[in-house]
Amino acid sequence: MNAPATTDLPVVVIGAGPIGLAAAAHLVDRDIEPLVLEAGATAGAAVRGWAHVRLFSTWGEVVDRAAEKLLAPTGWTHPDPASYPSGGDWAEQYLQPLAHALGERVRLDSRVTGVSRAGRDRIVDANRDQQPFVVRIARADGREEQILARAVIDASGTWATPGPAGACGLPALGEGAAADRITYRVPDIGDPAVRARYAGRRTAVIGSGASAFTALVHLAALAGSGGNGEGTKGVWVVRRGISGSTFGGGSADQLPARGALGLVAKAAVDEGHADAVTGFRTEAIERDTDGRLVLVAEDGRRLDAVDEVIVLTGLRPDLGFLGELRLRLDERLQAPAGLAPLIDPNQHSCGTVYPHGHRELSHPEQGIHLVGMKSYGRAPTFLAMTGYEQVRSVAAALAGDLEAADRVELALPETGVCGGAGLFDTPAPSAAALAVTDVSAPASGCCGS
């Protein structure tokens, strides 16, 4: 292939979410031309999938500085920095205007199906780093095309690949057959159709992170709303025991809404709106004679039948379209090997993850960077401000400004519900140890904020 000089080509950014659009803004600020490819029909398509969920972080913490600079000439007004946006607010009031400001640099309905080097498969060494990247795209109308790029920033996230119910990492036996009664998202109880699905019914919530807390709180609110919400019951299925840190940092959390979420979820359990089942590692999902679902553990335990199951066991990266590139990924987290020790959930919470940039995100294949949620692989501790620091550093490195790329410009809040996992078989403490006195703060949030 007679390819043009790579410096004449754009940097392709995969994903028009918060981190992808921020990456584009930083590239523009560095006089580097970006091309953002978004699989969805709108900017922030994944964020819109949890539009009803409120972020832990305030508006002051989820607007990127380079993006704000790009938005300023358009007359955009920064929302109240001290208020908490929902996912829908974030998408409509920030991501969509930012995509409009970037104009034709953002292409929608463009799903990336493969990335490689021009004329070089994964095996070939000769002049590899001198070849541009080839980015294959599938359009919504079925057409295929390809684009050449000088570098690729993959900010495609992990929203499309949720974890399964099975404790071994594989779908539980029967999970596919029970798909009509399983969801992998926090339900929007404000939607009448969704409300009717859960009202007055028994629902298992599998997971122990912020999303599971949010689902429990929503079910508890439905149970306490009267009318057809009466009789709504949650069954919180936890793979390990409940310890003192299970519900997060509480009033000590430097992200107050995140700490409050744990307190309100704890109250939902304490007040009987949800029963906690600990040490339960799901192996199978069966149907009883009434068509309800029965969860079966690896140790043979069987739960009483439930009407619905909400699986919130984390997210994982889709690495399939990067198969022709030479990536160095951690064997556990599927995150860049240089970053993995900093984000290992067995050791770190959101606040103990050190700010990092292009060096920790590097791979043997020069010019490819996984950023945002995608860079964290299976780790659940990501915050938007971390992603903004990542892309600031990456853009500076691509511009050749290594001094700026290596500089740390971020301080993270400490503690929280996305903290370390602790011992795998930590026993549950007594009920008295779980007493809670203050549940008055906001009841929802998202660790992806």
Describe the protein's architecture and organization.
The chain has ten helices and 15 strands. The chain has helices at 18-29, 45-48, 65-71, 87-102, 192-198, 210-223, 256-270, 340-343, 384-398, 402-406; strands at residues 11-14, 34-37, 106-107, 110-117, 133-139, 144-149, 151-154, 182-183, 202-206, 233-237, 274-277, 282-287, 293-297, 308-311, 368-370. Mean pLDDT is 87; it is low at 415-449.
Write out key terms for the chains shown.
449 residues; alpha/beta; 5-stranded parallel beta sheet; 15 strands; 22% helix; disordered C terminus
Strand arrangement in the largest pleated sheet: 3-2-1-7-15
- Helical percentage: 10-25%
Shape: globular
What is the number of strand segments? 15
> What structural category arises from helix and sheet content?
alpha/beta
Question: What is the residue-mean pLDDT, rounded to a whole number?
Answer: 87
Number of helices: 10
SSE arrangement, N to C:
EHEHHHEEEEEEHEHEHEEEEHEHH
Uncertain runs with pLDDT below 50, 5 residues or more?
Answer: 415-449
Question: How far from one another are the termini?
Answer: 42 Å
Q: Compute the gyration radius: what is it?
A: 22 Å
Task: Please report which band the strand proportion falls in: under 5%, 5-15%, 15-25%, 25-35%, 35-45% or over 45%.
Answer: 15-25%
**Major sheet attributes:** 5 strands, parallel
